[in-house]
């Protein structure tokens, strides 16, 4: 397969710019069309990046025979119908996080893609972090022994102006949640990817500072299926930005790392210079994920984060919300 993979972007908001910058670096891909329900926004986006074709009706875009892959960059709770339709039109699909905001909607999307024989990939670029990849390998090789605790802290600053900047932000209907569903989901996905699936959670979540429907602050205690315990802290309400941090404790080692690489590495019989891996921040663009998706299409294989994997973080977040609302432990 020597031809380029033609890509279209649906939704010309903030995150779509990251997709374009990544696509420009991929020799086997080309951006051929963009779509947004606001015509002025679609035209401005197309003009900025030199894209000849733009439209406001995504079905018009999907009906084109020259498009192989669509990047879905619309609000979180508006993805189900577009993805189901894209599968019907035999397009491969890469969806921004979260995959969707309810279990049923995610199931509909995954089933539609499987039935149509098209690929569905999710965007979780932190899975390309060198420190995370190395930590996961050590866990899988048993170098840390039995894992006893694994924690993730995702504490950001998001002003009231941020939430007011778009009508869908901070709403249950289209954002599907707050600090966890929109920001913390990256850390939640990465922790599950490294450690394994979650058995149960007990949580608190609410809006303590921002005037929004969803949570700006959340804390959850969880039990992994492998027996380990863990904590998730997520917030957009704090004062001062903090680095996302991950902690993994096993009977034979402790590892802690963040966006700037390892901050603690103490593993029995494993030598490692904390400076070896350096900063991971340079990896936080979309290139690795989109390039992998293009390669998956060409070589007819599963993408780095298939739909079934992309939904796991959302399922956990929904369980956290259920626990926070009921005041009870929730099993996944």
Would you tell me the structural class of the helices and strands?
Answer: alpha/beta
Proportion in helices: 25-40%
Q: What is the H/E string?
A: EHEHEHEHEHEHEHHEEEEEEHHE
CATH class of the largest domain: Alpha Beta
Low-confidence stretches: none
Strand content: 15-25%
Physical arrangement of strands within the biggest beta sheet: 13-12-11-7-10-9-8-14
Tally of structural domains = 2
CATH architecture of the largest domain: 2-Layer Sandwich
Would you tell me the overall average pLDDT?
95
Classify the fold: give the CATH topology of the largest domain. Answer: Dihydrodipicolinate Reductase, domain 2
Overall geometry comes to globular
């Amino acid at each position: 397969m020597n031809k380029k993979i033609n890509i279209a972007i649906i939704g010309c908001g903030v995150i779509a710019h990251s997709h374009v910058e990544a696509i420009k670096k991929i020799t086997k891909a080309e951006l051929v069309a963009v779509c947004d329900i606001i015509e002025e926004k679609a035209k401005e986006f197309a003009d900025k990046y030199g894209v000849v074709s733009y439209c406001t009706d995504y079905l018009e875009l999907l009906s084109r025979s020259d498009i192989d892959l669509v990047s879905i960059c619309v609000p979180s709770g508006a993805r189900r119908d577009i993805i189901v339709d894209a599968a019907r039109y035999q397009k491969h699909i890469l969806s921004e996080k979260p995959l969707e905001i309810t279990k049923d909607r995610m199931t509909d999307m995954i089933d539609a893609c499987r039935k149509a024989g098209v690929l569905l990939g999710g965007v979780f670029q932190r899975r390309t972090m060198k420190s995370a990849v190395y930590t996961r390998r050590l866990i899988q090789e048993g170098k840390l022994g039995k894992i006893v605790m694994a924690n993730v802290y995702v504490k950001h600053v998001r002003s009231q102006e941020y939430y007011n900047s778009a009508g869908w932000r901070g709403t249950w209907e289209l954002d599907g949640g707050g600090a966890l569903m929109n920001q913390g989901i990256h850390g939640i996905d990465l922790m599950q990817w490294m450690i394994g699936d979650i058995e149960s959670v007990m949580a608190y979540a609410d809006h303590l500072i921002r005037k929004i429907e969803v949570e700006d602050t959340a804390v959850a205690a969880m039990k992994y299926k492998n027996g380990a315990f863990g904590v998730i802290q997520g917030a957009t309400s704090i004062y001062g930005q903090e680095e996302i941090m991950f902690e993994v404790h096993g009977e034979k080692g402790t590892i802690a790392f963040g966006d700037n690489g390892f901050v603690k590495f103490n593993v029995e019989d494993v030598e490692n210079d904390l400076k070896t891996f350096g900063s991971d921040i340079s990896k936080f663009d979309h290139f690795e994920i989109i390039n992998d998706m293009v390669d998956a299409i060409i070589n007819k294989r599963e993408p780095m984060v298939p739909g079934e994997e992309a939904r796991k973080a959302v399922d956990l977040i929904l369980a956290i919300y259920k626990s926070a609302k009921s005041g009870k432990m929730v099993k996944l």
